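Notes to self after the Tuesday call (sharing in case useful).
The group wants a holo model before anyone commits to mutagenesis around the pocket. I volunteered. Ligand is 7TS. Logging inputs and output together so the record is complete.
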Amino acid sequence: MSTFVPPKHDFPLLVNREPIVYLDNAATTQKPEVVINALVGYYAQNNANVHRGVHQISDEATGMFEDARKTVANFLNASTPDQILFTRGTTESLNLVAYTYAPLVLNDKRTVLITEMEHHSNFVPWQLICECMGAKLLAVKVNSDGTLNLDHFRELLRSQRVAIVSITHVSNVLGTINPVREIIDLAHENDAKVVIDGAQAAAHLNINVQDLDCDFYAFSSHKMYGPTGFGVLYGRAELLHEMGPWQGGGEMIKHVSLEKTTFQDPPHKFEAGTPDISGAVGLAAAIEYLAQQQSQGLDEYERHLLSYATESLLEIDGLRVIGTASEKSGALSFLVDGTHPHDLGTLLNEQQVAVRTGHHCAIPLMEALGIPGTVRASFGLYNLKKDVDRLYEALKTAIRILRK
Ligand code: 7TS
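Result:
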């Protein structure tokens, strides 16, 4: 095990709600005190609207908001901050691409490729826009171990006129880390643009949009220790310039008249109305906090913890891990013979262990795997081996009760 020490004491909720073991980090993470303080500090000291006031406080708020954009650009290694759009989260980021970029390229019966392992938020927006444009939506198959069927991907790229590939970096159910670099290269060789859903990657992997060479990258602040209701879309500059605005309103215009409105350059063209300024400030604080943890060996620790959890749970009679790819991160899904996931989740909750059960907003994946749902334990930087041991013991008790 690495020398990283999980800083549970940095997270007030975990301290206040002891002895609850929180293993639902793929749904949302808890917030460290530095993030909570950044939000309170912003409202107590610097709250004003951005990009419009001539007064000092508005200047400060604008500075903090735009500094947060720079922090996010560095976090993703984007070449410029104006390629960073602030949204309400991954869901809104993906909808933004579907509604403003897809119409430019989905004419003429072209295809959007997703995969069977997508979260509904990387599924439904594409279905809606494809229906609207008369385009085809196809899904790359998932192998029984939870990896992507890359042969099927290559075959679809060959046989279809693919305009867009939209794929998750890390599966929220299986934990699979997809080989996105390879997928992006293959897609580009076939003239398709690539959107990456980074919702489950941002807290766990180092993301470098220039190395990946992706066209769009989306993630949510709340899954990486930042505030809820805030997120990011990275877009390649030339594409953001081609794309029309998304919503109309204040601050996204250059000039308005009855005849014609002209628009600001990206990113402001895509940010109509008063944005979530505190969200940006909170996300910047979360990114700094996460970077500090990473500098102390977090990545290795998280890998060890996931292996430890997998090995422990596999000792339980009749337990089957759903998703056994060699490259995994964050989530551990499983089923236990003779029990229903929901019953297990309920009995775990009674023993103060918080997990998620069900289809995890990935019904097509459940159907592809032929399972009703899973129990999912998902880990954050504060989880200890002791938490895994609590899960193990609570599971054994739950199974004993259910099998009586
Ligand atoms: N994409 C993936 C891969 C996700 O896991 C989620 C949320 C989203 C998109 C949507 O993110 P949002 O912040 O816009 O809601 N996943 C989950 C989950 O696994 N359990 O609760 C939410």
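Two things stood out.
The pocket of 7TS is lined by residues 26-27, 89-91, 119, 121-122, 168, 172, 197, 199-200, 220, 356, 360-361 (CB under 6 Å).
The CA atoms of residues 84 and 372 lie 38 Å apart.
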